[in-house]
Design a protein that fits this description.
By secondary structure, the chain is of the alpha/beta class. 30% of the residues lie in helices and 20% in strands. The mean pLDDT is 95.
C-alpha cells in the first residue's frame, strides 16, 4: 500500500499534515503525537519581526467550531530560525513554513531569510491585511494575488504554496490568479470571517469584533471550494477546513486534494492526525486501493 504523495517535487510519506496556527512547530504536541508519523508539519505563521497579535479576548467557542482573532502572534523570523527549525529537524517529517506579512516587502524578507534553511516548502498566508492597499487582504483581489505570488516566487528557493482565503466571491478566479503568478501548489481554505455577540453584555465576544471561523461547521464549504479549485487549475492542492476524521480527509482527496491539513481538531484531540492516517490506511485496505494517488480527484 503506497501512502506517499508528491507536492511539486517534495515527497511526503503520507498526505496528512498540520494546519498553520494550530500546532505551533510541534513542541506543544510532541508528548501526544509522534511527529515522525506525519507527512509534514506546517508551522505557525512567521513574520519578519515579532507580532504581538490582537487584544484579548481573541478566541471564542461557537456552534460547530471556534472563532479566533489571535492576529498571527509570532516571535519573528530570528527566533524561529534559532529555535523552531532545529527542533523540527530532529524528526522524520517535512517542514513547511507558513509566512505572513503586512506588505510585499515583509513577505519577501522572510522568504529570503529562509532561502538557505533546511525547510521543504513555504506556505504564503495571503489572508493578511495589505497595509499598502488600505487593509484589504492580499488574497481577496485576483490582481493582488497574482502580484504577491509572482514577487514571492522571484525570491523563494523552495516550492511556494499559496494559502487561499474563502472570503471571496469566486475561489476559482483567485486560484487561477495564483497559478498565473507562478504558484507551485495551493492550500485552502483559510478561515471564514465570523462574529459572536454576548447578548447579556450586549457587546462583541472578541475584542477584534470579527474572527476567523474554523472547525467542522465549515467542512462542506471547504470541500466545495477544493473541488472548484481542482477543476480550475492544474496545481496540486492541500485541502483543509474542518477536517476531524479520516472520512473528512478522504472527502478532500476525492474532491481533488493531493494532501490535507488538520487544524482545529488538534485542540480537542491532539492525536487526531495519527488517527486520520490510520483511518485512511484502513479505508484503502477495505476498498483495495493500492496507491493513495488513485483517490485524488476520483469524484468528478
Amino acid at each position: 500500500m503506497n501512502m506517499t504523495v508528491d507536492l511539486c517535487g517534495v515527497t511526503l510519506k503520507n498526505p496528512v499534515m498540520t494546519a498553520s496556527g494550530t500546532f505551533g512547530s510541534g513542541m506543544e504536541y510532541a508528548e501526544f503525537v509522534d511527529l515522525n508519523r506525519l507527512g509534514a508539519v506546517v508551522t505557525k505563521g512567521v513574520a519578519s519581526v515579532p507580532w504581538e497579535g490582537n487584544k484579548t479576548p481573541r478566541v471564542a467557542e461557537v456552534y460547530g467550531g471556534m472563532l479566533n482573532a489571535v492576529g498571527l502572534q509570532n516571535p519573528g523570523i530570528d527566533l524561529f530560525l534559532k529555535r523552531d527549525i532545529p527542533y523540527l529537524r530532529q524528526f522524520d517529517t517535512k517542514i513547511i513554513v507558513n509566512v505572513c506579512g503586512r506588505t510585499t516587502e515583509e513577505y519577501i524578507e522572510v522568504v529570503e531569510r529562509l532561502r538557505e534553511e533546511p525547510v521543504d516548502m513555504l506556505e504564503i498566508n495571503i489572508s493578511c491585511p495589505n497595509v499598502e492597499a488600505g487593509g484589504i487582504a492580499f488574497g481577496q483581489s485576483p490582481k493582488a494575488v497574482e502580484a504577491i505570488t509572482s514577487e514571492v516566487k522571484k525570491h523563494a528557493a523552495q516550492p511556494v504554496i499559496m494559502k487561499l482565503s474563502p472570503n471571496v466571491t469566486d475561489i476559482s478566479e483567485i486560484a487561477r490568479a495564483a497559478e498565473a503568478g507562478g504558484a507551485d501548489c495551493l492550500s485552502l481554505i483559510n478561515t471564514l470571517t465570523g462574529m459572536k455577540i454576548d447578548i447579556e453584555k450586549r457587546s462583541f465576544v472578541l475584542a477584534n469584533k470579527t474572527g476567523g471561523m474554523s472547525g467542522p461547521a465549515i467542512h462542506p464549504i471547504a470541500v466545495r471550494m477544493v473541488y472548484q479549485t481542482a477543476q480550475a487549475v492544474k496545481l496540486p492542492i492541500i485541502g483543509m477546513g474542518g477536517i476531524c476524521s479520516a472520512e473528512d480527509a478522504l472527502e478532500m482527496l476525492l474532491a481533488g486534494a493531493t494532501a490535507v491539513s488538520v487544524g482545529t481538531a488538534n485542540f480537542t484531540n491532539p492525536k487526531i492526525t495519527e488517527e486520520i492516517i490510520a483511518g485512511i490506511e484502513a479505508y484503502m485496505e477495505r476498498f483495495g486501493v493500492s496507491d493513495i494517488r488513485e483517490l485524488t480527484g476520483a469524484v468528478k
